[in-house]
Amino acid sequence: MRRLFLFLGFVISTICYAQNGLLVGYNNTHIGKNVAIEYLRSFNDFQIEIGLKYHIFNLHYDNQNNLLKDRVYPQTFLQHFGPILGVNRKFPIQNTTFRPEVFFQSQLTYAGLHAVIYSPYGYAPSPDGRQLYTYHYEIFDEQINLENILGVGFDLSITPKLRYYNRFGLIYGLYFIMDDQIALSRRWAVIEYGLFFSMGLNYAF
Question: Are 140 and 116 contacting, i.e. CB atoms less than 8 angstroms apart?
Fold first, then answer.
């Protein structure tokens, strides 16, 4: 019983001395770009992140070799939004406001896709003889996109409570395809990898 009270006392004191923060940032992920607002809860050098992102409409390019890259296309107002959950570990450096970090974060999106499709329909007259294509712009059904991000970053002080941050990472994306037109070989889940970049401000209170 004594150990239980000691453990509860440790948990309560940790919560009482934990610091709160608010993060506002811009994220460039594999499926597109978003802006996010997150609540931060700090325990010593660790932070828990819980937030909400707003997916920005993408300018579409079709010169990529991935099915999902920059192709998520919200079709309703609610589909722009998605939850964010993460954790990070700071490494304070003595006598400086610069703090490196490592982080893990998951971002969830439920939205449609858009894509450009080129369909062959014949050949150019001789002597050229090149394959000719027709251009189609398609919008596909909604799907679930779960992007897991592992990376490094840093932040530094602007004022005693306001800090600027940058993050860089690798994305392991799990995408659940729900449109039969784009399911690959009847696979329901598609895995793709990408790069992650983020920047913004966080405020401690």
Answer: no
All residues at 6 or more sequence positions from 180 whose CB lies less than 8 Å from its CB, including other chains:
none
Q: Are 49 and 38 in contact (CB under 8 A)?
A: yes
Q: Which pTM does this prediction carry?
A: 0.80
> Which residues contact residue 45 at a Cβ distance below 8 angstroms, ignoring those fewer than 6 apart?
89, 90, 91, 92
User: Which of left, alpha, beta for 70 (phi over 0: left; psi -120 to 50: alpha)?
Assistant: left
Asked whether 193 and 149 are in contact (CB, 8 A), the reply is no
Dist CA 103 CA 105 (whole Å): 7
Alpha-carbon dihedral 178, 183, 185, 191, rounded to 10 degrees: -90
Residue 60 to residue 183: CA distance in whole angstroms: 20
Q: What is the DSSP string of 107-138?
A: EEEEEEEEEEEEEEEEEPPTTT--EEEEEEEE
Q: Give the CB-side neighbour count of residue 87, counting CA atoms within 13 A.
A: 5
- pLDDT tens, 88-103? 999 999 889 999 999 9
> Which amino acid type is present at position 139?
I
Q: Which domains does the chain have, with CATH numbers?
A: 2-204 (2.40.160)
